[in-house]
Amino acid sequence: MFQLIREWLDRHFSDPQMLMLGFLLIIGFVFVFLVGEMLIPVFAAVVIAYLLDGMVARLQNLHIPRIASVMVVFFLFMACLLILMIWLLPMLSRQIGQLLQQLPSMIAVGQNELLRLPERYPDFISEAQIKQILDFVGTELTNLARRILPLSVASVRSLISILVYLILVPLMVFFLLKDKNKILNWMTGILPDDRGLAIEVWREVNQQIANYIRGKIWEILIIWTASYVTFKLLGLQFSMLISLFTGLSVLVPYVGVTVMILPVTLIAYFQWGLGTDFAYAIIAYAVIQLLDGNLLAPLLLSEVVNLHPVAIIAAVLVFGGLWGVWGLFFAIPLATLVHAVLKAWLNRRVEQTPQLENMQSN
What we know:
The chain folds into two domains: 36-180, no CATH class; 195-353. Helices cover 87% and strands 0% of the residues. It has 13 helices and no strands. The protein is globular, with a radius of gyration of 26 Å.
């Protein structure tokens, strides 16, 4: 048994470059898993700098010095951040407050509708089943309130952390853009020399991640804007809040679209009931998602490696469970990394098979 395992390991992991690639992946995974939560501001700054670097490169192509390009892009970023803080956050806060105020009346309406079901459909549902459903919902709401209470108690500390992040993240973004080449050279200097396969994998993954992140950012902004304009024209309450989460739902393929239909349906129902306006809201949401899935996403993400839907859902579940929101955001890039590693490993095996056969024949 041990001989078979040893032969399998020698056959598949005798290549020094494969060992080096595996070592780097394990070190990176363990590092992120252990200290990832503490380094969230750093990761956020890296992602933002990664996105802004494309704009810096375009300005450099126009023969503008890098430092000037960095300054222009950074000031645009700070202007967008200022608009976000002055205009968007107060609006979202106001709509969240209105939603919390109306939540008890929405729950009461929902309870009344549930209590009418045994009268309308006595053959399908009974009063005892309705009581069980209401008890379950009441228990879940109580548990939710208990979880929210500690968050409210710690709100002062969270506010201080947010203020610190608002200072640290832009500062790190500026230095990551300004000293990009120095940082990359330093990182390259501390890596082992025998890393040819790792560099090959990184080049492929880097291109895929760049296309994916930039495409997803544009997809979020377009879906967010289209949803807000549509819901605003329809007169749907909490249009900014709903449209924001509709845009963010594209981060979780298949799952996000399915989950977001529930709040859209409930808010439209509590506002209008089962009428024409309710139907218009649901149809509008469905049209936006159909255009996104069949036109916008293929157009923006056409250069990203196509993964099977099962692989995408599995990646969302695994990486989302490990790293929460960041795991959901990077689920597809990380799945692309796994795909690139497996592809490089298989190609390496195909290249080495004739050499191994020659050595065995000799």
